[in-house]
Amino acid sequence: MRFLLGLSRAIDALTEGVGRAVVWLVLLVALLSAGNAILRYGFRYSSNAYLEAQWYLFSLIFLLGGAYALKHNAHVRIDLIYGRFPPRTRAWIDVVGTVLFLLPMALGVLYLSWPWVMNSISVREVSPDAGGLPRWPIKLAVPIGFALLALQGISELIKRIAYLTGQYALAEEEEKEVA
C-alpha cells in the first residue's frame, strides 16, 4: 500500500500542476474574449481565429481541469444524500462510484477518442472556416483530459481504500469533503 500511496501522491502532484496552469487559461480566455469584442464592435474587425481560440481555451479549461476538480472534490454529486452518510459510507460510495462509473467512462472516452484524434492528426485537420485554426490540437486534448481524469480517479481510489483499511488518514479538507 505504501507504493500505491506514493503513486497517488505523484498523480496528485501532476493534477495540481496541470490545474494551476489551467487557472491561467481562465484569465487568458477572458482577455481574449474582451479583446475580440473590442476589435469587433470598436473597430469592426473580426477573425475566425480569435473566436476559435476562445472556444479552444474554454474547452481546455474543462478538459484539463476535470482531474483538478475531482482532486479537490469540486465535482458534481448529489450532496443532499451523500452528505448525510458517515465518513466510511461516503468513502465506500466513492470507491464504488469510481470503479463502476468514473473509470469505465474515462477509459471508454479515451479508447473511443483515440482513432478520431489520430485521424485528425494524420490529415492535419484544420477548421473549415476562413482563417480558422488547426483542429487536431484541441482534439488531442480530449484523450489527454480523460487520461488525467482516469489517473486522478485511480489516485482517489487508492486514498479511499487506504482510508477504509486504516492505512491513510485523510487530510482535514478531504475529511470534511469525504466525511
Automatic annotation (TrEMBL):
TM region positions: 21-41, 53-70, 91-116, 136-154
Protein name per its UniProtKB record: C4-dicarboxylate ABC transporter
Location(s), subcellular: Cell inner membrane
Metal-binding listed as a keyword: no
Organism: Thermus filiformis
Any one cellular-component term (Gene Ontology): plasma membrane
Residue ranges annotated for the Tripartite ATP-independent periplasmic transporters DctQ component domain, each copy included: 32-161
Pfam family, one: DctQ
Keyword Nucleotidyltransferase: no
Signal peptide annotation: none
Membrane topology value: Multi-pass membrane protein
Family: Belongs to the TRAP transporter small permease family.
Major subcellular site: membrane
Record's keyword terms, sorted: Cell inner membrane, Cell membrane, Membrane, Transmembrane, Transmembrane helix, Transport
Alphabetical list of InterPro entries matching this protein: DctQ, TRAP_DctQ
